[in-house]
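Methods: example folding runs. The two proteins below were folded one after another, and each record is reproduced exactly as written to the output file, sequence line first and C-alpha coordinate line second.
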Amino acid sequence: LLSCNVFDLEFETDCIGPSTMDSAKDDVMNSPHPHRPAGGRLAALLGLLLPAVPTLAAECPPALEPATFEWEQFVVDPVIDNSQTQQWIQTQPGGNPRTRAQTRSHVQTKIDLKFQYQTDKLSGVTCAYLKKAKFLFAIDELRVFIPDRFKPGTCQFTTLETHEREHVALSRAALQEAAPQIEQEMRRAVQEVKPIPSEDKQKAGQAIGQPLAALLKTQKEAFNARHNARQKTIDTPQNYAVVEGYCPSW
Protein backbone atom coordinates (compact mmCIF):
# COMPACT_ATOMS: atom_id res chain seq x y z
CA LEU A 1 0.00 0.00 0.00
CA LEU A 2 1.33 3.41 -0.93
CA SER A 3 0.52 6.89 0.35
CA CYS A 4 1.64 9.94 -1.66
CA ASN A 5 2.07 13.64 -1.15
CA VAL A 6 3.62 16.46 -3.15
CA PHE A 7 6.33 18.88 -2.04
CA ASP A 8 7.64 21.95 -3.87
CA LEU A 9 11.22 23.17 -3.64
CA GLU A 10 12.79 26.20 -5.33
CA PHE A 11 16.42 27.10 -5.96
CA GLU A 12 17.29 30.57 -7.23
CA THR A 13 20.59 32.29 -8.06
CA ASP A 14 21.57 35.41 -9.92
CA CYS A 15 24.56 37.48 -10.98
CA ILE A 16 25.40 40.96 -12.22
CA GLY A 17 27.81 41.74 -15.03
CA PRO A 18 28.46 45.29 -16.22
CA SER A 19 29.86 46.41 -19.55
CA THR A 20 31.34 49.85 -19.93
CA MET A 21 32.22 52.59 -22.38
CA ASP A 22 35.56 53.96 -21.20
CA SER A 23 37.94 56.63 -22.43
CA ALA A 24 40.04 55.75 -25.47
CA LYS A 25 43.17 55.90 -23.31
CA ASP A 26 41.88 53.38 -20.80
CA ASP A 27 43.15 49.83 -21.25
CA VAL A 28 41.26 48.40 -18.26
CA MET A 29 38.48 46.10 -19.37
CA ASN A 30 35.55 44.67 -17.47
CA SER A 31 36.44 42.64 -14.42
CA PRO A 32 36.23 38.92 -15.22
CA HIS A 33 33.69 36.76 -13.47
CA PRO A 34 34.73 33.51 -11.73
CA HIS A 35 34.43 30.65 -14.18
CA ARG A 36 34.45 26.91 -13.93
CA PRO A 37 34.28 24.75 -17.07
CA ALA A 38 30.82 23.76 -18.08
CA GLY A 39 29.64 20.20 -18.43
CA GLY A 40 29.77 17.19 -16.17
CA ARG A 41 27.06 14.74 -15.44
CA LEU A 42 24.59 14.72 -12.58
CA ALA A 43 26.30 11.73 -10.96
CA ALA A 44 29.51 13.69 -10.52
CA LEU A 45 27.64 16.40 -8.61
CA LEU A 46 26.06 14.04 -6.10
CA GLY A 47 29.33 13.91 -4.19
CA LEU A 48 28.93 17.61 -3.35
CA LEU A 49 25.98 16.98 -1.04
CA LEU A 50 26.68 17.23 2.67
CA PRO A 51 25.47 15.88 4.97
CA ALA A 52 24.56 12.54 3.43
CA VAL A 53 20.89 11.74 3.11
CA PRO A 54 19.81 9.01 5.53
CA THR A 55 18.72 6.04 3.47
CA LEU A 56 17.21 2.66 4.13
CA ALA A 57 18.41 -0.68 2.88
CA ALA A 58 15.48 -1.09 0.51
CA GLU A 59 15.67 0.31 -3.00
CA CYS A 60 13.01 2.43 -4.59
CA PRO A 61 11.15 1.07 -7.60
CA PRO A 62 11.62 3.11 -10.77
CA ALA A 63 9.21 5.93 -11.53
CA LEU A 64 6.16 4.90 -13.51
CA GLU A 65 6.60 7.93 -15.79
CA PRO A 66 9.43 10.41 -16.41
CA ALA A 67 9.45 13.78 -14.72
CA THR A 68 7.89 16.64 -16.64
CA PHE A 69 10.49 19.11 -17.98
CA GLU A 70 9.75 22.79 -18.63
CA TRP A 71 12.16 25.48 -19.87
CA GLU A 72 11.73 29.24 -19.99
CA GLN A 73 14.16 31.84 -21.32
CA PHE A 74 13.90 35.52 -22.20
CA VAL A 75 15.83 38.76 -22.56
CA VAL A 76 14.16 41.99 -21.46
CA ASP A 77 14.24 45.17 -23.49
CA PRO A 78 16.88 47.69 -22.39
CA VAL A 79 16.05 50.68 -20.21
CA ILE A 80 17.92 53.94 -20.83
CA ASP A 81 18.80 55.65 -17.55
CA ASN A 82 19.88 59.28 -17.97
CA SER A 83 19.43 60.23 -14.31
CA GLN A 84 22.84 59.40 -12.84
CA THR A 85 25.97 61.51 -12.69
CA GLN A 86 29.20 60.61 -14.44
CA GLN A 87 30.85 60.10 -11.05
CA TRP A 88 28.16 57.68 -9.91
CA ILE A 89 28.52 55.60 -13.08
CA GLN A 90 32.27 55.47 -12.61
CA THR A 91 31.91 54.03 -9.10
CA GLN A 92 29.68 51.15 -10.18
CA PRO A 93 31.08 47.60 -10.55
CA GLY A 94 33.22 47.50 -13.68
CA GLY A 95 33.58 51.28 -13.79
CA ASN A 96 36.68 53.41 -13.39
CA PRO A 97 37.57 57.13 -13.48
CA ARG A 98 37.43 57.19 -17.29
CA THR A 99 34.13 55.36 -17.73
CA ARG A 100 31.70 57.36 -19.86
CA ALA A 101 28.65 55.05 -19.94
CA GLN A 102 27.72 51.59 -18.73
CA THR A 103 25.25 48.79 -19.39
CA ARG A 104 24.30 46.66 -16.41
CA SER A 105 23.00 43.18 -17.11
CA HIS A 106 21.36 40.87 -14.61
CA VAL A 107 21.21 37.13 -15.25
CA GLN A 108 18.65 35.13 -13.32
CA THR A 109 18.40 31.35 -13.04
CA LYS A 110 15.69 29.54 -11.17
CA ILE A 111 14.59 25.97 -10.57
CA ASP A 112 11.11 24.99 -9.49
CA LEU A 113 10.84 21.32 -8.53
CA LYS A 114 7.84 19.24 -7.59
CA PHE A 115 8.25 15.93 -5.80
CA GLN A 116 6.05 13.01 -4.98
CA TYR A 117 6.71 10.90 -1.90
CA GLN A 118 5.54 7.31 -1.74
CA THR A 119 5.59 5.34 1.50
CA ASP A 120 5.20 1.57 1.68
CA LYS A 121 2.87 0.99 4.63
CA LEU A 122 4.31 -2.47 5.28
CA SER A 123 8.05 -1.71 5.19
CA GLY A 124 7.81 1.95 6.12
CA VAL A 125 10.21 2.88 3.32
CA THR A 126 9.56 6.34 1.87
CA CYS A 127 10.85 7.17 -1.62
CA ALA A 128 11.16 10.63 -3.15
CA TYR A 129 10.32 10.92 -6.85
CA LEU A 130 10.92 13.97 -9.05
CA LYS A 131 7.63 14.71 -10.78
CA LYS A 132 8.26 18.10 -12.43
CA ALA A 133 11.27 20.32 -13.08
CA LYS A 134 10.90 23.85 -14.41
CA PHE A 135 13.95 25.95 -15.26
CA LEU A 136 14.35 29.66 -15.91
CA PHE A 137 17.41 31.16 -17.60
CA ALA A 138 16.98 34.83 -18.39
CA ILE A 139 18.57 38.22 -18.66
CA ASP A 140 15.95 40.07 -16.64
CA GLU A 141 17.65 43.47 -16.56
CA LEU A 142 19.46 45.52 -19.18
CA ARG A 143 19.95 49.05 -17.89
CA VAL A 144 21.98 51.54 -19.91
CA PHE A 145 23.46 54.36 -17.84
CA ILE A 146 24.31 57.55 -19.72
CA PRO A 147 25.51 60.54 -17.65
CA ASP A 148 22.90 63.20 -16.94
CA ARG A 149 25.20 65.90 -18.33
CA PHE A 150 24.63 64.46 -21.82
CA LYS A 151 21.05 65.19 -22.84
CA PRO A 152 19.05 63.19 -25.40
CA GLY A 153 19.61 64.50 -28.89
CA THR A 154 23.18 65.61 -28.27
CA CYS A 155 26.07 64.03 -30.14
CA GLN A 156 27.52 62.60 -26.92
CA PHE A 157 24.25 61.03 -25.78
CA THR A 158 23.52 59.49 -29.17
CA THR A 159 27.07 58.16 -29.54
CA LEU A 160 27.10 56.56 -26.09
CA GLU A 161 23.62 55.10 -26.54
CA THR A 162 24.64 53.55 -29.85
CA HIS A 163 27.69 51.93 -28.30
CA GLU A 164 25.79 50.60 -25.29
CA ARG A 165 23.05 49.20 -27.51
CA GLU A 166 25.79 47.16 -29.18
CA HIS A 167 26.41 45.63 -25.76
CA VAL A 168 22.70 44.92 -25.44
CA ALA A 169 22.67 43.18 -28.82
CA LEU A 170 25.66 41.07 -27.80
CA SER A 171 23.91 40.05 -24.58
CA ARG A 172 20.78 39.05 -26.45
CA ALA A 173 22.76 37.02 -29.00
CA ALA A 174 24.81 35.33 -26.29
CA LEU A 175 21.72 34.00 -24.52
CA GLN A 176 20.00 32.92 -27.72
CA GLU A 177 23.07 30.94 -28.75
CA ALA A 178 23.81 29.40 -25.35
CA ALA A 179 20.30 28.54 -24.18
CA PRO A 180 19.70 25.44 -26.37
CA GLN A 181 22.82 23.72 -25.06
CA ILE A 182 22.05 24.65 -21.45
CA GLU A 183 18.50 23.38 -21.85
CA GLN A 184 19.80 20.12 -23.28
CA GLU A 185 22.19 19.64 -20.34
CA MET A 186 19.45 20.28 -17.79
CA ARG A 187 17.00 18.01 -19.60
CA ARG A 188 19.57 15.22 -19.59
CA ALA A 189 20.21 15.75 -15.89
CA VAL A 190 16.51 15.52 -15.09
CA GLN A 191 16.26 12.28 -17.04
CA GLU A 192 19.10 10.83 -14.94
CA VAL A 193 17.44 11.58 -11.59
CA LYS A 194 16.68 8.43 -9.61
CA PRO A 195 14.22 8.08 -6.74
CA ILE A 196 15.82 8.28 -3.31
CA PRO A 197 14.75 6.25 -0.24
CA SER A 198 14.82 8.34 2.89
CA GLU A 199 13.14 8.79 6.25
CA ASP A 200 13.50 12.57 5.87
CA LYS A 201 11.39 13.99 3.05
CA GLN A 202 13.04 17.42 3.18
CA LYS A 203 16.55 16.00 2.86
CA ALA A 204 15.47 13.62 0.12
CA GLY A 205 14.07 16.52 -1.89
CA GLN A 206 17.26 18.49 -1.37
CA ALA A 207 19.37 15.51 -2.40
CA ILE A 208 17.57 15.51 -5.75
CA GLY A 209 17.37 19.28 -6.15
CA GLN A 210 20.81 20.42 -5.08
CA PRO A 211 22.72 18.58 -7.84
CA LEU A 212 20.38 20.13 -10.41
CA ALA A 213 20.97 23.56 -8.89
CA ALA A 214 24.74 22.98 -8.88
CA LEU A 215 24.68 21.96 -12.53
CA LEU A 216 22.65 25.02 -13.49
CA LYS A 217 25.06 27.22 -11.56
CA THR A 218 27.97 25.70 -13.49
CA GLN A 219 26.17 26.36 -16.76
CA LYS A 220 25.47 29.95 -15.71
CA GLU A 221 29.10 30.58 -14.81
CA ALA A 222 30.20 29.24 -18.19
CA PHE A 223 27.64 31.51 -19.86
CA ASN A 224 28.93 34.51 -17.90
CA ALA A 225 32.47 33.84 -19.06
CA ARG A 226 31.42 33.60 -22.72
CA HIS A 227 29.16 36.62 -22.36
CA ASN A 228 31.90 38.78 -20.85
CA ALA A 229 34.42 37.68 -23.45
CA ARG A 230 32.02 38.72 -26.20
CA GLN A 231 31.42 42.11 -24.58
CA LYS A 232 35.14 42.81 -24.48
CA THR A 233 35.39 42.54 -28.26
CA ILE A 234 33.94 46.06 -28.54
CA ASP A 235 35.47 47.41 -25.33
CA THR A 236 38.91 48.14 -26.72
CA PRO A 237 40.98 51.35 -26.73
CA GLN A 238 40.88 51.31 -30.53
CA ASN A 239 37.09 51.13 -30.63
CA TYR A 240 36.75 53.77 -27.92
CA ALA A 241 38.91 56.13 -30.00
CA VAL A 242 36.64 55.63 -32.99
CA VAL A 243 33.48 56.19 -30.92
CA GLU A 244 34.80 59.32 -29.25
CA GLY A 245 35.85 60.68 -32.64
CA TYR A 246 32.22 61.08 -33.59
CA CYS A 247 31.80 64.12 -31.32
CA PRO A 248 33.87 67.31 -31.27
CA SER A 249 34.15 67.39 -27.46
CA TRP A 250 33.45 65.39 -24.31
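Second run, written to the same file directly after the first:
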Amino acid sequence: ESTRYSGHRYKAGTDSLPRNDRRRDGEPRPLAGRFLPVARPSASQGSPAAKVFTTSPQSISSPGDGTYLLHYFAQDCAGTQELRFAKDTTTRSWTTNFYTFPINIDTVAPQANTALSAPSPYYQGQVVTASYSCSDPNLSSGQPASGVVTCGTQSFNPGIATTGNFSAPISTSVGGQHTFTVNAADAAGNTSTSVTNYAVNIDSQIFFAVDSNPVTYPSGPRLDVQVQNLYSSVPTGTVVILDNGNPAATFMLKNGKINNYLNGLSAGQHSLNAHYLGDGSNPAGYSAAVALTVLPAPVSLSASCGNSSYLLGTNVVCSVSATDLNDRNSPPQGVVTYSLDGGAPISVPLTSGVAQISINQPSVGNHSIVINYPAQTNFAAAGPVTTNFVVVHP
Protein backbone atom coordinates (compact mmCIF):
# COMPACT_ATOMS: atom_id res chain seq x y z
CA GLU A 1 0.00 0.00 0.00
CA SER A 2 2.98 2.35 0.54
CA THR A 3 6.64 2.54 -0.46
CA ARG A 4 9.64 3.85 1.48
CA TYR A 5 11.97 6.25 -0.35
CA SER A 6 14.96 8.15 1.24
CA GLY A 7 13.54 7.80 4.71
CA HIS A 8 10.07 8.97 3.68
CA ARG A 9 6.86 6.95 3.16
CA TYR A 10 4.64 7.62 0.17
CA LYS A 11 1.39 6.24 -1.00
CA ALA A 12 2.00 4.29 -4.17
CA GLY A 13 1.63 6.36 -7.32
CA THR A 14 0.17 9.42 -5.56
CA ASP A 15 2.72 11.51 -3.58
CA SER A 16 5.52 13.59 -5.15
CA LEU A 17 9.18 13.34 -4.13
CA PRO A 18 10.63 15.82 -1.53
CA ARG A 19 12.68 18.76 -2.86
CA ASN A 20 16.09 17.44 -1.70
CA ASP A 21 15.47 14.25 -3.66
CA ARG A 22 15.13 16.10 -6.98
CA ARG A 23 17.71 17.58 -9.33
CA ARG A 24 17.85 21.27 -10.02
CA ASP A 25 15.87 20.79 -13.21
CA GLY A 26 13.10 19.18 -11.14
CA GLU A 27 13.70 15.61 -12.29
CA PRO A 28 14.25 12.86 -9.68
CA ARG A 29 17.75 11.86 -8.70
CA PRO A 30 19.08 8.42 -9.76
CA LEU A 31 17.66 5.59 -7.52
CA ALA A 32 20.96 4.20 -6.29
CA GLY A 33 19.27 1.06 -4.96
CA ARG A 34 16.27 2.81 -3.51
CA PHE A 35 12.60 1.83 -4.08
CA LEU A 36 10.43 3.99 -6.26
CA PRO A 37 6.75 4.37 -5.64
CA VAL A 38 4.91 2.21 -8.21
CA ALA A 39 1.26 2.49 -9.04
CA ARG A 40 -0.70 -0.61 -8.00
CA PRO A 41 -2.24 -2.43 -10.99
CA SER A 42 -5.97 -2.74 -10.95
CA ALA A 43 -8.75 -3.68 -13.31
CA SER A 44 -9.63 -0.02 -13.68
CA GLN A 45 -6.14 0.61 -15.08
CA GLY A 46 -6.61 -1.96 -17.81
CA SER A 47 -4.99 -4.96 -16.06
CA PRO A 48 -6.81 -8.28 -16.69
CA ALA A 49 -8.59 -9.93 -13.76
CA ALA A 50 -6.85 -12.85 -12.06
CA LYS A 51 -7.65 -16.23 -13.61
CA VAL A 52 -9.01 -18.93 -11.32
CA PHE A 53 -8.26 -22.46 -12.38
CA THR A 54 -8.39 -25.97 -10.95
CA THR A 55 -5.48 -28.36 -11.25
CA SER A 56 -5.91 -31.87 -12.57
CA PRO A 57 -5.87 -34.74 -10.03
CA GLN A 58 -2.41 -35.85 -8.97
CA SER A 59 -1.38 -39.08 -7.27
CA ILE A 60 0.87 -39.09 -4.20
CA SER A 61 2.66 -41.95 -2.50
CA SER A 62 3.64 -42.49 1.12
CA PRO A 63 6.00 -44.86 2.92
CA GLY A 64 3.19 -46.50 4.90
CA ASP A 65 0.50 -45.96 7.54
CA GLY A 66 0.90 -42.79 9.52
CA THR A 67 0.13 -39.08 9.68
CA TYR A 68 1.64 -36.78 7.05
CA LEU A 69 1.53 -33.12 6.01
CA LEU A 70 1.19 -32.42 2.31
CA HIS A 71 3.01 -29.14 1.47
CA TYR A 72 1.84 -27.29 -1.61
CA PHE A 73 2.22 -23.90 -3.34
CA ALA A 74 1.32 -22.12 -6.54
CA GLN A 75 3.96 -21.01 -9.06
CA ASP A 76 3.43 -18.50 -11.85
CA CYS A 77 5.07 -18.46 -15.29
CA ALA A 78 7.94 -16.33 -13.99
CA GLY A 79 8.81 -18.98 -11.43
CA THR A 80 7.46 -17.06 -8.45
CA GLN A 81 6.11 -19.31 -5.71
CA GLU A 82 2.95 -18.12 -4.05
CA LEU A 83 3.22 -19.16 -0.40
CA ARG A 84 1.11 -18.55 2.66
CA PHE A 85 1.63 -15.22 4.43
CA ALA A 86 0.38 -14.88 7.98
CA LYS A 87 0.43 -11.81 10.20
CA ASP A 88 0.91 -12.00 13.97
CA THR A 89 -1.65 -9.57 15.36
CA THR A 90 0.43 -9.08 18.52
CA THR A 91 3.91 -8.46 17.08
CA ARG A 92 2.52 -7.27 13.71
CA SER A 93 5.21 -9.32 12.02
CA TRP A 94 4.67 -11.55 8.99
CA THR A 95 5.66 -15.16 8.44
CA THR A 96 5.90 -17.13 5.24
CA ASN A 97 5.38 -20.89 4.87
CA PHE A 98 3.95 -23.56 2.64
CA TYR A 99 0.27 -24.33 2.58
CA THR A 100 -0.23 -27.72 4.29
CA PHE A 101 -2.91 -30.38 4.25
CA PRO A 102 -2.88 -33.23 6.86
CA ILE A 103 -3.24 -36.77 5.56
CA ASN A 104 -3.90 -39.76 7.83
CA ILE A 105 -3.09 -43.04 6.04
CA ASP A 106 -4.67 -46.13 7.57
CA THR A 107 -4.72 -49.39 5.61
CA VAL A 108 -5.28 -51.77 8.55
CA ALA A 109 -8.83 -53.12 8.81
CA PRO A 110 -10.65 -53.06 12.17
CA GLN A 111 -11.27 -56.30 14.03
CA ALA A 112 -14.64 -57.74 15.11
CA ASN A 113 -14.89 -60.35 17.88
CA THR A 114 -17.96 -62.45 18.66
CA ALA A 115 -18.84 -64.87 21.49
CA LEU A 116 -22.08 -66.86 21.98
CA SER A 117 -23.68 -67.32 25.40
CA ALA A 118 -23.84 -71.13 25.03
CA PRO A 119 -22.02 -73.65 22.88
CA SER A 120 -23.65 -74.92 19.68
CA PRO A 121 -25.73 -76.92 18.75
CA TYR A 122 -29.00 -75.47 20.07
CA TYR A 123 -32.55 -76.74 20.23
CA GLN A 124 -35.26 -74.94 18.31
CA GLY A 125 -36.39 -71.82 20.17
CA GLN A 126 -33.47 -71.85 22.60
CA VAL A 127 -32.59 -68.39 23.91
CA VAL A 128 -29.02 -67.62 22.86
CA THR A 129 -27.25 -64.25 22.94
CA ALA A 130 -24.26 -63.10 20.91
CA SER A 131 -21.78 -60.69 22.49
CA TYR A 132 -19.60 -58.72 20.08
CA SER A 133 -17.11 -55.84 20.00
CA CYS A 134 -14.82 -54.10 17.50
CA SER A 135 -11.40 -52.50 17.72
CA ASP A 136 -8.89 -50.65 15.55
CA PRO A 137 -5.50 -52.44 15.91
CA ASN A 138 -3.45 -49.39 14.94
CA LEU A 139 -5.23 -47.01 17.27
CA SER A 140 -5.18 -49.54 20.10
CA SER A 141 -1.38 -49.83 19.81
CA GLY A 142 -0.85 -46.06 19.73
CA GLN A 143 -0.20 -45.89 15.98
CA PRO A 144 -1.96 -43.29 13.82
CA ALA A 145 -5.33 -44.70 12.75
CA SER A 146 -8.82 -43.56 11.89
CA GLY A 147 -10.82 -45.48 14.51
CA VAL A 148 -13.94 -47.67 14.36
CA VAL A 149 -17.08 -46.03 12.92
CA THR A 150 -19.31 -49.11 12.48
CA CYS A 151 -19.60 -52.27 14.57
CA GLY A 152 -22.58 -54.47 13.78
CA THR A 153 -25.65 -52.25 14.15
CA GLN A 154 -23.75 -49.61 16.17
CA SER A 155 -22.26 -46.38 14.79
CA PHE A 156 -19.51 -44.15 16.22
CA ASN A 157 -17.61 -40.96 15.54
CA PRO A 158 -14.04 -41.41 14.19
CA GLY A 159 -11.28 -41.98 16.72
CA ILE A 160 -12.75 -44.91 18.70
CA ALA A 161 -10.07 -47.50 19.47
CA THR A 162 -12.34 -50.10 21.13
CA THR A 163 -16.12 -50.06 21.11
CA GLY A 164 -16.87 -52.12 24.21
CA ASN A 165 -19.28 -55.06 24.23
CA PHE A 166 -22.74 -55.20 22.67
CA SER A 167 -25.27 -58.03 22.70
CA ALA A 168 -27.90 -59.30 20.30
CA PRO A 169 -30.16 -62.38 20.23
CA ILE A 170 -29.44 -65.00 17.61
CA SER A 171 -32.21 -66.80 15.79
CA THR A 172 -32.85 -70.44 16.69
CA SER A 173 -36.32 -70.62 15.17
CA VAL A 174 -35.29 -72.80 12.23
CA GLY A 175 -33.33 -76.02 12.28
CA GLY A 176 -30.08 -76.41 10.38
CA GLN A 177 -26.76 -74.60 10.00
CA HIS A 178 -26.70 -70.84 10.57
CA THR A 179 -24.28 -67.93 10.88
CA PHE A 180 -24.13 -64.79 13.01
CA THR A 181 -22.28 -61.98 11.22
CA VAL A 182 -20.76 -58.75 12.53
CA ASN A 183 -19.44 -56.18 10.04
CA ALA A 184 -16.84 -53.60 11.14
CA ALA A 185 -15.58 -50.47 9.36
CA ASP A 186 -13.17 -47.69 10.23
CA ALA A 187 -13.15 -44.04 9.17
CA ALA A 188 -10.64 -44.76 6.38
CA GLY A 189 -13.07 -47.18 4.72
CA ASN A 190 -11.31 -50.41 5.74
CA THR A 191 -13.78 -53.21 6.53
CA SER A 192 -13.79 -56.67 8.06
CA THR A 193 -16.38 -59.32 8.86
CA SER A 194 -16.68 -61.74 11.78
CA VAL A 195 -18.73 -64.85 10.99
CA THR A 196 -19.72 -67.32 13.73
CA ASN A 197 -21.28 -70.64 12.72
CA TYR A 198 -23.86 -72.45 14.82
CA ALA A 199 -26.40 -75.24 14.41
CA VAL A 200 -30.03 -75.74 15.51
CA ASN A 201 -30.93 -79.40 15.93
CA ILE A 202 -34.46 -80.78 15.80
CA ASP A 203 -34.66 -84.42 16.87
CA SER A 204 -37.23 -86.05 14.64
CA GLN A 205 -37.74 -89.01 16.99
CA ILE A 206 -39.35 -86.66 19.59
CA PHE A 207 -42.86 -85.57 18.65
CA PHE A 208 -44.42 -82.70 20.66
CA ALA A 209 -47.79 -80.93 20.30
CA VAL A 210 -50.47 -79.15 22.36
CA ASP A 211 -54.20 -79.73 22.01
CA SER A 212 -55.33 -76.07 22.19
CA ASN A 213 -53.87 -72.65 21.45
CA PRO A 214 -54.52 -70.04 22.78
CA VAL A 215 -55.48 -70.87 26.35
CA THR A 216 -56.67 -68.62 29.18
CA TYR A 217 -54.82 -68.28 32.48
CA PRO A 218 -54.60 -70.28 34.72
CA SER A 219 -55.70 -73.12 32.45
CA GLY A 220 -53.20 -74.73 30.14
CA PRO A 221 -53.07 -77.09 27.17
CA ARG A 222 -52.82 -80.86 27.21
CA LEU A 223 -49.39 -82.00 26.10
CA ASP A 224 -48.82 -84.78 23.63
CA VAL A 225 -45.23 -86.08 23.71
CA GLN A 226 -44.11 -89.22 21.91
CA VAL A 227 -40.56 -90.53 21.83
CA GLN A 228 -39.94 -93.05 19.07
CA ASN A 229 -37.61 -95.89 19.79
CA LEU A 230 -34.54 -95.75 17.58
CA TYR A 231 -33.61 -99.29 18.57
CA SER A 232 -35.57 -102.27 19.84
CA SER A 233 -36.50 -100.95 23.32
CA VAL A 234 -39.39 -98.60 24.13
CA PRO A 235 -38.05 -95.24 25.40
CA THR A 236 -38.30 -94.71 29.14
CA GLY A 237 -37.25 -91.99 31.52
CA THR A 238 -37.90 -88.28 31.97
CA VAL A 239 -39.13 -85.48 29.73
CA VAL A 240 -38.64 -81.87 30.83
CA ILE A 241 -40.94 -79.27 29.26
CA LEU A 242 -38.99 -76.06 28.61
CA ASP A 243 -40.75 -72.69 28.55
CA ASN A 244 -38.62 -70.09 26.75
CA GLY A 245 -35.61 -72.20 27.73
CA ASN A 246 -36.56 -72.58 31.41
CA PRO A 247 -37.87 -75.81 32.97
CA ALA A 248 -41.65 -75.57 33.43
CA ALA A 249 -42.65 -79.17 34.25
CA THR A 250 -41.21 -82.68 34.44
CA PHE A 251 -43.05 -85.86 33.39
CA MET A 252 -42.23 -89.55 33.20
CA LEU A 253 -42.75 -91.44 29.97
CA LYS A 254 -45.36 -94.18 29.91
CA ASN A 255 -44.98 -96.51 26.95
CA GLY A 256 -42.87 -93.82 25.34
CA LYS A 257 -45.63 -91.19 25.66
CA ILE A 258 -46.87 -88.31 27.82
CA ASN A 259 -50.44 -86.96 27.97
CA ASN A 260 -50.64 -84.37 30.73
CA TYR A 261 -51.89 -80.81 31.22
CA LEU A 262 -49.52 -77.91 31.64
CA ASN A 263 -51.37 -75.32 33.75
CA GLY A 264 -50.31 -72.07 35.37
CA LEU A 265 -48.18 -70.54 32.61
CA SER A 266 -48.21 -66.75 32.83
CA ALA A 267 -50.18 -64.71 30.32
CA GLY A 268 -48.16 -63.90 27.22
CA GLN A 269 -46.22 -65.63 24.45
CA HIS A 270 -44.40 -68.90 25.11
CA SER A 271 -42.06 -71.17 23.19
CA LEU A 272 -42.21 -74.76 24.46
CA ASN A 273 -39.84 -77.67 23.87
CA ALA A 274 -39.88 -81.26 25.07
CA HIS A 275 -36.41 -82.26 26.29
CA TYR A 276 -36.04 -86.02 26.54
CA LEU A 277 -33.19 -86.92 28.89
CA GLY A 278 -32.61 -90.33 27.30
CA ASP A 279 -32.14 -93.79 28.77
CA GLY A 280 -29.67 -96.62 28.37
CA SER A 281 -30.89 -97.47 24.89
CA ASN A 282 -32.30 -94.22 23.49
CA PRO A 283 -30.40 -90.97 23.12
CA ALA A 284 -31.43 -87.65 24.65
CA GLY A 285 -32.76 -84.90 22.43
CA TYR A 286 -35.01 -81.89 21.91
CA SER A 287 -38.28 -81.62 20.06
CA ALA A 288 -39.22 -78.86 17.67
CA ALA A 289 -40.52 -75.71 19.36
CA VAL A 290 -44.25 -75.23 19.87
CA ALA A 291 -45.64 -71.69 20.16
CA LEU A 292 -48.33 -71.07 22.77
CA THR A 293 -50.34 -67.97 23.66
CA VAL A 294 -51.77 -67.63 27.18
CA LEU A 295 -54.51 -65.00 27.52
CA PRO A 296 -55.07 -63.06 30.76
CA ALA A 297 -58.02 -64.21 32.84
CA PRO A 298 -61.21 -62.13 32.54
CA VAL A 299 -62.16 -60.32 35.75
CA SER A 300 -65.53 -59.36 37.18
CA LEU A 301 -65.59 -56.25 39.41
CA SER A 302 -68.30 -55.27 41.90
CA ALA A 303 -68.59 -52.69 44.68
CA SER A 304 -70.93 -51.92 47.56
CA CYS A 305 -70.92 -49.09 50.08
CA GLY A 306 -73.60 -50.60 52.34
CA ASN A 307 -75.84 -47.52 52.46
CA SER A 308 -76.89 -44.92 49.94
CA SER A 309 -77.27 -42.13 52.54
CA TYR A 310 -74.98 -41.06 55.39
CA LEU A 311 -75.11 -38.40 58.08
CA LEU A 312 -72.51 -35.63 58.02
CA GLY A 313 -69.43 -36.61 60.06
CA THR A 314 -69.71 -40.32 59.19
CA ASN A 315 -66.93 -42.27 57.51
CA VAL A 316 -68.00 -44.10 54.37
CA VAL A 317 -66.61 -47.62 53.83
CA CYS A 318 -67.06 -49.46 50.54
CA SER A 319 -66.10 -53.04 49.71
CA VAL A 320 -64.74 -53.98 46.26
CA SER A 321 -64.63 -57.55 44.99
CA ALA A 322 -62.62 -58.79 41.98
CA THR A 323 -63.34 -62.30 40.69
CA ASP A 324 -61.60 -64.49 38.12
CA LEU A 325 -64.43 -65.55 35.82
CA ASN A 326 -62.54 -68.68 34.70
CA ASP A 327 -61.44 -69.90 38.11
CA ARG A 328 -63.12 -68.54 41.23
CA ASN A 329 -60.50 -70.31 43.32
CA SER A 330 -57.82 -68.08 41.77
CA PRO A 331 -58.65 -64.52 42.91
CA PRO A 332 -57.14 -61.62 40.96
CA GLN A 333 -54.07 -59.98 42.42
CA GLY A 334 -52.74 -56.43 42.45
CA VAL A 335 -54.74 -53.29 43.18
CA VAL A 336 -57.98 -51.51 42.40
CA THR A 337 -58.18 -47.77 41.89
CA TYR A 338 -61.00 -45.42 42.87
CA SER A 339 -61.77 -41.80 42.12
CA LEU A 340 -64.09 -39.74 44.35
CA ASP A 341 -66.12 -37.09 42.52
CA GLY A 342 -63.70 -37.00 39.58
CA GLY A 343 -60.57 -36.61 41.71
CA ALA A 344 -57.19 -38.24 41.16
CA PRO A 345 -57.21 -42.09 41.23
CA ILE A 346 -56.16 -43.72 44.51
CA SER A 347 -54.81 -47.31 44.64
CA VAL A 348 -55.98 -49.86 47.18
CA PRO A 349 -54.40 -53.37 47.38
CA LEU A 350 -56.47 -56.51 46.90
CA THR A 351 -56.34 -59.24 49.51
CA SER A 352 -57.84 -62.53 48.32
CA GLY A 353 -59.67 -60.55 45.68
CA VAL A 354 -61.19 -58.00 48.11
CA ALA A 355 -60.29 -54.34 48.77
CA GLN A 356 -61.72 -51.87 51.30
CA ILE A 357 -62.21 -48.20 50.40
CA SER A 358 -62.54 -45.78 53.31
CA ILE A 359 -63.63 -42.15 52.79
CA ASN A 360 -63.17 -39.92 55.83
CA GLN A 361 -66.26 -37.81 56.66
CA PRO A 362 -67.27 -36.63 53.18
CA SER A 363 -69.08 -33.28 52.87
CA VAL A 364 -72.81 -32.76 52.55
CA GLY A 365 -74.16 -33.52 49.08
CA ASN A 366 -74.20 -36.17 46.39
CA HIS A 367 -71.00 -38.17 45.80
CA SER A 368 -69.82 -40.66 43.19
CA ILE A 369 -67.06 -43.27 43.38
CA VAL A 370 -65.64 -44.72 40.12
CA ILE A 371 -63.69 -47.98 40.59
CA ASN A 372 -61.38 -49.75 38.11
CA TYR A 373 -59.21 -52.85 38.09
CA PRO A 374 -56.04 -52.13 36.05
CA ALA A 375 -54.67 -55.02 34.00
CA GLN A 376 -52.17 -57.15 35.91
CA THR A 377 -49.71 -59.77 34.60
CA ASN A 378 -52.26 -62.61 34.43
CA PHE A 379 -55.56 -60.75 34.76
CA ALA A 380 -57.38 -58.54 32.28
CA ALA A 381 -58.59 -55.05 33.15
CA ALA A 382 -62.12 -54.63 34.53
CA GLY A 383 -64.44 -51.73 35.22
CA PRO A 384 -65.36 -49.02 35.59
CA VAL A 385 -67.91 -49.66 38.32
CA THR A 386 -69.71 -46.63 39.76
CA THR A 387 -71.41 -46.38 43.15
CA ASN A 388 -73.22 -43.29 44.48
CA PHE A 389 -74.17 -42.05 47.93
CA VAL A 390 -75.46 -38.87 49.56
CA VAL A 391 -74.42 -37.12 52.78
CA VAL A 392 -77.06 -35.14 54.70
CA HIS A 393 -77.21 -33.01 57.85
CA PRO A 394 -78.25 -34.78 61.04
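Comment on the second run: The radius of gyration is 44 Å.
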